[in-house]
């Protein structure tokens, strides 16, 4: 029995030592597996510095606006008898938009045209009747004057010989004076009837005045028909048949077709990057997959203090057919371009807005601080002017990787598959 007890004690002790030995082996195995990782550091996904052509853009949103809108109204007071167009309709230049009642205007035109005919008849009368009659009267007066002068001369000779009395001489002198007066009057009438004379000028002036009055009457008649000043789309209509309308009140708003502008608000911090003439690509929110060209045409000299933005306008040389007034658009303005630029993702730059930005670059298995000089920035990338080269691996400045890796720590870089 004693031998059996000793055997059991020995067996128990052996089992206990085996358990301890197994635990030690497991600990050594785990340490052997973990040691390389502890020596080489954790695996961390890194970002890469690349080299390619780079375009810096300023992104903004705004709306479509024509360079000018035409407010359509009437020029005379009247009653609307027809409005043959609807809001949203596209109309050609010269299309009828509003028609007013025109009976009185038409009657005024007829009356004015009759006055023109009367004035023209008076001009013809002066030229074709008065002038020839005046010429005939001058010839007759000239003949009578010559007879009276000869009679006066003869009577003066006779009275010298005492063949006639003083009374006969006085009669011949009066007759000669009257004949001369009649001749002067006839000559004045002829001069008045000829071109440039007072009667001719008066008749011509009356004709011109009548014609002007007729043109004014026709203009008032034309004012009863309001026509589209240019081809475009009616974006507002505030008039109906039967309305009594007056001058000075816009009744329709016409957005001319063809020319179009994009009006966008740019953050004032980007103002130094903008210049008139810069190219841009734009898209309407309703047609986001279709982009069209635009060009920066105007930069407002003032700043919107409440929004901290500046208004800019871009011309659209060839607007797409779907572009409509007041559509919402997104615009990418190209402000700079760099061929073969060295670029780093913006998320890897630490102190990006400080005077001394830097990267945490993976070099020889360690995370090392690397100061950099930055250039252009756009769409999640920064141009590196110095401090990094294409192919460098850098750690993100945010996220789990940024928290678990300190400057100088060992790290194993994992480049994500693209």
From TrEMBL:
Q: Which residues form a coiled coil?
A: 131-158
InterPro entries the record matches: Beta-barrel_RND_2, MdtA-like_BSH, RND_pump_MFP, UPF0194_transport
What Gene3D superfamilies does its record include? 2.40.30.170, 2.40.420.20, 2.40.50.100, Helix hairpin bin (1.10.287.470)
Q: Which GO terms describe its molecular function?
A: transmembrane transporter activity
Q: Carries keyword DNA repair?
A: no
Q: Which keywords annotate this record?
A: Coiled coil, Periplasm, Signal
Cellular localisation: Periplasm
Any one cellular-component term (Gene Ontology): periplasmic space
The UniProt record lists the Multidrug resistance protein MdtA-like barrel-sandwich hybrid domain at 69-251
- On whether Secreted is a keyword of this UniProt record, the answer is no
Q: Where is the CusB-like beta-barrel domain?
A: 262-334
- Tell me which Pfam families the record gives: Beta-barrel_RND_2 (PF25954), BSH_RND (PF25917)
Q: Which family does it belong to?
A: Belongs to the membrane fusion protein (MFP) (TC 8.A.1) family. Belongs to the UPF0194 family.
Per its UniProt record, what NCBIfam families does this chain match?
A: RND_mfp
Q: What is this protein called?
A: Efflux RND transporter periplasmic adaptor subunit
Q: Which organism is it from?
A: Ramlibacter cellulosilyticus
